[in-house]
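User: Show me sequence and structure for the first protein, then do the same for the second.

Assistant: Starting with the first protein.
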Amino acid sequence: MNLKTFLFTIISVLLLGSCASSFKSYRPDKKYSKKELQSDYTLLRNILEEKHPSLYWYTSQDSMNFYFDSLYRAIPDSMTELQFGWNILAPLSQKIHCGHTSFGMSHNWSRYVRNRFIPSFPLYVKVWGDTMIVTGTLHKKDSLLKPGMQITSINNMGIRQITNKMFQYLPGDGFAENVNYLRISSNFPYFHRNVFGLYKNYKVGYIDSTGKQLVATLPMWVPQQDSTKKDSTKKKEIKQLVKIPKKERKKRRIENARSLQVDTVNNTAVMNLNTFSNGGGRRLRTFFRRSFKTVKELGIKNLIIDLRANGGGDITMSSLLTKYIRNTPFKVADSAYSITKNFSPFTSTIQTGFWSNIGLIFLSKKRKDGLYHFGYWERHVFKPKSKNHFDGKTYVLINGPTFSASTLFCNAIKGQENVTIVGEEAGGGWHGNNGIMIPDITLPITKLRMRLPFFRIVQFNHVPKDGRGVLPDIYIGPTVESVMKGEDRKMMVVREMIRREIK
């Protein structure tokens, strides 16, 4: 064993031992004093004011100071980690209007809630605008409100009131709120519990099958306390998972992140791409190369690229995909810069802060404007692929979760004659966003975390800064009927468009 391996092993053992010891004594109901909370909050404010590249991009400095001060004053005599996170840090992060600046609970909290069920509002829903449709229920024996039924109010609050309140706790790029409808819809009980608290009973207004508006009283969902049944169920799930060979499990994970399906009958290929990071650059690079080679060899003329769940990732990989689709040379950014040269003097509170500081010496350079520019992304001109470049019709599906690097891709190919962007407004800022390097700040006392993007990216040939996400060329939103039937309306519409073109 060489010295490097030996040191790494020792450090790993110490860290794992420390984490295990820390979690063993962890109490989620622990109350932190006002002084402790103010200390963490003040540190966070100092870091954001000195290091965040776009703290005042969508919120003026005067307004941001007001929010900082008012939330500081709102800290009571004591709070739990959960209370401090959701009542103070969540609304603070929302005021910045940066989708990459979001708060997270401590690692110990994440371990604590893993495989635990917490009391909550009893229904899962799909929500958009002023419409809310039931998609599932936690009360398995409940026969009153079934999937497909429309909810009109909860505890006398209309749907718009509910979502507007929730949005005050959720981050987003600029004013592109579509992503937050998708977040809420992904786990409504979780967000409702953390924003509104718990109620013994919920008054739920709904529309029945005859179109009549009624009100039902639903009890809070409380998990069963039968630990024997829970343990046996968990063991059964583990046993089933073990039965799947490791190679097959790996294959499923990769296919869930990206896949290519070819429909030779309709001369169409569907590339499902949920991340630009999965499996490392080499694997994604290989996937692109093989996919476009297959499309070329089969003579496919229609390509659907599904980015509706793509939250971004490696800009190098999104640029590589762009090279297969875009017809002309392009750059990633008109500008990419940080406001400071490193994370000092807050290095110890920043994830991988020491190594990031070293890397920044080589990545960025101070210019006359006093900013530290990431020159590569500003200067480098990417040329379209000559081999296996796709020249047929490209349809790109986008939605609220289309974010970060996937937004860079959309901006680069939008407006090209053979490209049509379809769906709903992307969550990622069209003018630009913050990213490239996004470590976590870990507050020393509560251990709560806040993501800190270090660079501001203004898109190549950017649109004006109006706070909007990339807009589709053809809008296709959800409908009550499609949600009730569980249909993928966006994909159905695009496939029908292609079929009509073929005829």
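Switching to the second protein now.
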Amino acid sequence: MRKFASGCVRIVGSGKLFIKSVRPRARRALPEAQGAVKDRRLMTSHTFAAANPLRGTIRVPGDKSISHRALMFSGLAVGQSRITGLLEGEDVLATAAAMRQFGADIIRADDGTWTVHGAGLGSLLEPKSALDMGNSGTSTRLLMGLVASHAITATFIGDASLSGRPMGRVIDPLSQMGAGIEASGGGTLPLMLRGASPAVPITYRLPVASAQVKSAVLLAGLNTPGITRVIEPVPTRDHTERMLTGFGARLEVGEENGEKVIAIHGEADLKPMDVVVPGDPSSAAFFMVAATLVPGSDLTILNVGLNPTRAGLLAVLRQMGADITEVDAREVGGEPVADLRVRHAALTGIDVDPAIAPSMIDEFPVLFVAAALASGTTRTSGLEELRVKESDRLSTMATALSSVGARVEEHEDGLTIHGTGGEPLRGSANARVKTMLDHRIAMSMAVAGLVSRDGVSVDDTSPINTSFPTFMGLLAEAAA
């Protein structure tokens, strides 16, 4: 490793819902330079206040994790794939734009069906311009894995939030496979990656529970001669393994010394397939909590993915006393799915088992809101990963909830929340909660506003478009 004067690091492989809008204002632009990017968003403030009961039936957008992978794997297959139910948020569209630069032909029909003619594994084109990942850490880390075993060079850039997120956890294994990587100080974006040809197969034990790191190594292994193995001490979401098998990759999953081992055979020949994307459980989470907390609610959320590696929030909410029923359990596109009927229920605080964290890591911000309204105390631990998400979600949620009247204690690896016993939060209509460019913070505090006396004013809802562009409309519809 060698540090340059420029700051780069070179690493070489070895009642009724009220929503009040405030006129957008331009966000201060960061300098367009190495290690910094321009944030082109407009800030839009909204105030969320007490709602009518949430009733009726809604359908949340397609699963973000599956949508990313459907575009990537279709883009690597030879032939035509069709994708229905794709999430059309900014993060997924960033993946689509990148795959087009790699040579895939991707077209969206008027009915929302996406058709992908793949570039073919081993035949990716070198991008003619930098790959703008926006706010998407998933796009960045997984696409770094794709590039690592192809004889091309790609530059990755992102917005201000993404440019502060660590990429070292992916840089390490990919450099071991032979990729040459030049990253900004601290191992962040902007970043340039030169793929190895051929790359070197490795056996890599994940130092942290991360489906993104696991997937990056497996995707690099797709075009690497031999067998690449990932050892997973703590199980994480397994969409990559499920979908790669569907596309024809030779992949074996076993266990050694109590740890999961995934082995992928390189120089794969991926076949096209049709993918049906189920509803995103991370998006459904906001409505599961909202309907649980708002008195009189009886809401059905259709077609929610219930992959066991993603269903942790459902188990925790039920442990706290939530009334959530699975209706018409079935399988869609190789993933377990059900409709969820959620009725208002009083919650009781619990000690959340840290072992469940990987299966609900993105849902903790809205769980913290549920805990703030529960009876008694909820304690969470083992959540260090939340400090390196789109924001430091432990610190940001502790500050946000405290500002609206919740009693919160922040620890290094979690939060302790003393609930109100169902009494509304005070709210903060006259003081805007800072979301720190984080879509899940914005939506979680929107839910908090529904169960507050004075409403909750969120400083910026524009990041919601990265994962859930229809959130505001669905919330208004459910509370109409």
